[in-house]
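step: validate -> pass
step: tokenize input -> pass
step: predict -> running
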Amino acid sequence: SIGTLAVCGTVNDLSVSGAKPLWLSAAFIIEEGFLLSDLKRIADDMATAAKTAGVAIVTGDTKVVERGAAQGVFITTAGLGSVPPERENIASGSRVTPGDIVIISGTVADHGMTILAARNGLKTSQPLASDCAPLNCLIDLACESANGEIRFMRDATRGGLATVLCELAENRSFGIEIDEAAIPVGYAASGLCEMYGFDPLYVANEGKVVIVVSAAVADAVTTALRAHPLGKNAAQIGRIIDNHRGSVGQNTAAGGTRILEMLAGDQLPRIC
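step: predict -> pass
step: emit ->
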């Protein structure tokens, strides 16, 4: 629900910035006539997500607006955490150098395709569910196994994997090369993407993190991720290179190279 998304989104934003999440705030804008039973479910989901992540929701605010002004309910969350010295500036990408390895923590496109299916009443022969989850425990495992050699982290939310990589490479003195065959995509999500013409690299995720690490620790970090339920499909999908600076290239299954660009708009209506 939107309650789970609200908590996980802020926990994950803190985590990929190098912080250990501690406290959250939550502000509700509720439309007149919104069902109390739905509000209770949202609050219960927020409590469950916060408990799973090991954080506390310590303050908040509530406003009620006239009917039709808020599409049901809006929730805004913010958070605070502590940053260990070895994780400072990890979200900036300033540590990334050619030879580093790009890792994704699991299958891409699950969240966006689940939202598409739910909104359009679509049924799939294979299970399809949002990957929404707090990633702080998974990220802690990765950091512990990397011996300080994690160069960059970012959760692949709006704009998906491709946009994260394009933002990292933009105006930098390196390029990024990824392999299409190495990128994990679930069967059901892949089928829906193909059917409706979506590129899974640009579809939103809510429980996946992109990590760039030195080559020396790439195998150890991948193994650590795969030992956790949220990282069981983790894969090394590419590398940082010294040419094609400022751009991202994908080696395709057909044997060519495709240049990836940042998503100009939202592929799907936003849910968070």
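step: describe -> Strands lie at 20-31, 56-65, 73-82, 101-104, 150-155, 175-179, 209-213, 235-241, 248-251, 257-260.
step: cleanup -> pass
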